[in-house]
Write a structure and sequence with these properties.
Elements: E1 2-8, H1 16-32, E2 39-46, H2 48-59, E3 67-71, H3 76-85, E4 92-100, H4 101-111, H5 115-130, H6 138-152
Parallel strand pairs: 1-2, 2-4
Antiparallel strand pairs: 3-4
Length: 155
């Protein structure tokens, strides 16, 4: 169902059980969204400096952020059948996820969560972005938040 190409460019070692929870969260999200083909995601853990540079380059924001998502397809969710049908390669490459492990650790502490839970949440959030969801408009934001809560068991 999902192939994940991990790349840890941070100074923090990510234990296998955490990676397994991240993968499980992403698979649940793909199943929820009824993506019925094998998919691939490139997944990188980076430092605060690196994500700040990426955020400035791609979003024009000179600040550290928790996660950046780089979808392979624009508006995948509304054009998924055509994208899947016209894709001669499997697994279907959805895009790239970049998580700042330092920011995730900080947020986990601030929210009273484990690092595993925070990384799982950020992974669900990012997969939704790769599928075309956004949170810039209130209606889209509430739809995205509803799915995130459901995937995290926060109903």
């Amino acid at each position: 169902m999902l192939v994940i190409a991990y790349d840890n460019r941070s100074n923090v070692e990510i234990a296998d059980p955490i990676l397994e929870e991240i993968e499980d969260a992403m698979v649940r999200t793909l199943l929820h969204q009824e993506i019925g083909v094998e998919c691939e995601v490139s997944f990188s853990f980076v430092s605060a400096d690196e994500i700040r540079t990426l955020n400035k380059e791609y979003r024009g924001k000179d600040a550290v952020t928790d996660v950046l998502s780089f979808p392979m397809y624009e508006d995948f969710i509304n054009h998924r059948e055509a994208i899947i049908k016209n894709n001669p390669f499997m697994p279907l490459l959805l895009g790239d996820i970049v998580i700042c492990i330092e920011q995730a650790e900080s947020q986990a502490k601030a929210y009273g969560n484990s690092l595993t839970r925070e990384l799982s949440y950020l992974s669900v959030h990012s997969v939704l972005h790769l599928l075309g969801y956004d949170h810039m408009v209130d209606d889209e934001k509430s739809a995205m938040r509803r799915i995130e809560k459901e995937m995290m068991g926060d109903n």
